[in-house]
Design a protein that fits this description.
This protein is of the alpha/beta class. It has 11 helices and 12 strands. It has 2 domains: about 160 residues, no CATH class; about 160 residues, Rossmann fold, CATH 3.40.50. Strand 8 and strand 9 form a beta hairpin.
Length: about 350
C-alpha cells in the first residue's frame, strides 16, 4: 500500500498553528498518524499511490470560530485545499483525519447544536472520494470510513512513595476501593437538558463509601491530588462511567480500558470501532442512556466471576488502545480499502 503525502499549504498551516495550543491533543494525534503512515507507506509517485493523505485535521477548521480565528469573517472551509487535491490527483481516494465530532457529511441527531460548534453548512466535497478517519464512530460515517481509536499515548505509572523510591521497593498493587466512578465535567451549558451531559448525568451525582460521580475538582478534594486525579480515579474504580460528551466518543472510555477499569459506555449511537478485531462484549458494558438510574443496581448485582473475566480480557487486549496498536488497526483497515481507488 502506497500513500502520497502533500505538504500543507498556507491555509492548513495557519489553522494548525493558531489552534495548536488549545487543541494540543488533537494536533498531536494528526501528526503521529501522519508520521506513522508516512514512515511505512510513503511514495512520491502518484501512479502507484492508493491514497492521498490530506495535510490537515478537519476538526481544527471546525473550531476556528471557537477561538475567534476567522478567515474573511466566516468559518474557514477547507474546500479550496480539497479541490486542489482532487484536481492534482484525479481518481485517487483522499484520506482525511478528523479527531472530534464531524457533522458535515450529513445532518445527524448527534450533531451538537451549540452556537460555537454547529456547522453552518454541509461540505459539498465530502463524498465517497474521501475516506474519513474519525473518532466520531457513528452510523453517520460511510462504510468506507474508519472509526478510529483515540488511543492513550503512554501509560502513566502509579506514584511511588518517596521512601519506596529511596529503598528501591515497588509500590503495592493497586487496590480498587471504588465500585464505580466518574470524575469530570458533569454538564455543559450549551447542551440541551435531555442530553446526558446537559443535565441528565446530574441525576446520579453524589458519592458514597464505594462510589463517586462528580466533578474533577470534587474528586481531588475528596481523595487528594494523586488518588483523585483523572488517572488516579481510573486506577481505583472497578467500573468507570463513560458518558458521551459533545460527540459520542470520549477519551475516558479508552483510558479506562488501558488502566484496567471496566468502562460503562453511556453514549447511545456510538459504534464501537474495529469490532471484527476487538471483542468488545468481553471488555465493556454498553448501557442505554434511558436507563441511567439503573447503573448502580446493575453493577452491584454483577457476579464476581463476570468482573474477573472482564479484568482478564482488559489485560489481554489493552495493546489495541495504546498508540502502536491503534495505529496498526488504522493501517490494516486502509489496506483492505486500497483496491477501490477509482470512481
Amino acid at each position: 500500500m502506497k500513500i502520497l503525502f502533500p505538504e500543507p499549504g498556507d491555509v492548513e498551516q495557519f489553522v494548525h498553528q493558531r489552534l495548536g495550543s488549545p487543541m494540543r491533543q488533537h494536533v498531536r494525534y494528526y501528526q503521529r498518524l501522519r508520521a506513522f503512515l508516512r514512515q511505512h507507506h510513503a511514495t512520491t509517485d502518484p501512479a502507484e499511490a492508493a491514497f492521498v493523505f490530506m495535510p490537515m485535521n478537519l476538526v481544527l477548521f471546525q473550531f476556528c470560530n471557537v477561538h475567534d480565528v476567522l478567515l474573511e469573517g466566516r468559518l474557514p472551509d477547507p474546500y479550496p485545499v480539497v479541490e486542489r487535491m482532487f484536481e492534482q490527483y484525479p481518481g485517487k481516494r483522499l484520506l482525511l483525519f478528523t479527531s472530534a465530532d464531524c457533522g458535515q457529511r450529513r445532518r445527524s441527531r448527534w450533531e451538537s447544536k451549540a452556537l460555537h460548534r454547529a456547522y453552518p453548512h454541509l461540505y459539498r466535497w465530502l463524498d465517497e472520494r474521501v475516506i474519513l478517519i474519525a473518532f466520531e464512530s457513528t452510523a453517520d460515517l460511510l462504510p468506507s470510513d474508519i472509526g478510529a481509536i483515540p488511543y492513550v499515548f503512554e501509560i502513566v505509572p502509579p506514584p511511588v512513595p518517596f521512601w519506596h523510591a529511596l529503598l528501591g521497593r515497588s509500590p503495592h498493587p493497586i487496590e480498587r476501593d471504588l465500585l464505580y466512578a466518574f470524575a469530570g465535567a458533569m454538564a455543559y451549558q450549551d447542551l440541551p437538558p435531555d442530553h446526558i451531559r446537559g443535565e441528565r448525568l446530574l441525576e446520579i451525582a453524589g458519592r458514597g463509601q464505594d462510589w463517586f460521580v462528580g466533578s474533577a475538582p470534587e474528586a481531588r478534594k475528596r481523595y487528594g491530588k494523586v488518588h483523585g486525579s483523572d488517572i488516579g480515579m481510573l486506577r481505583r474504580a472497578r467500573f468507570t462511567l463513560c458518558p458521551a460528551g459533545y460527540g459520542r466518543w470520549s477519551f475516558r472510555f479508552f483510558q479506562a480500558l488501558v488502566y484496567g477499569s471496566i468502562p460503562v459506555l453511556l453514549a447511545d449511537g456510538y459504534r464501537l470501532p474495529f469490532s471484527e478485531r476487538i471483542p468488545w462484549q468481553e471488555l465493556a458494558i454498553v448501557h442505554p442512556e434511558s436507563k441511567l438510574a439503573d447503573v448502580d443496581e446493575m453493577l452491584r448485582n454483577m457476579p464476581q466471576e463476570t468482573i474477573q473475566r472482564f479484568q482478564v480480557a482488559l489485560e489481554a487486549n489493552r495493546h489495541h488502545f495504546l498508540e502502536p496498536g491503534a495505529l496498526r488497526l488504522i493501517e490494516e483497515s486502509l489496506e483492505t480499502r486500497q483496491g477501490a481507488t477509482a470512481f
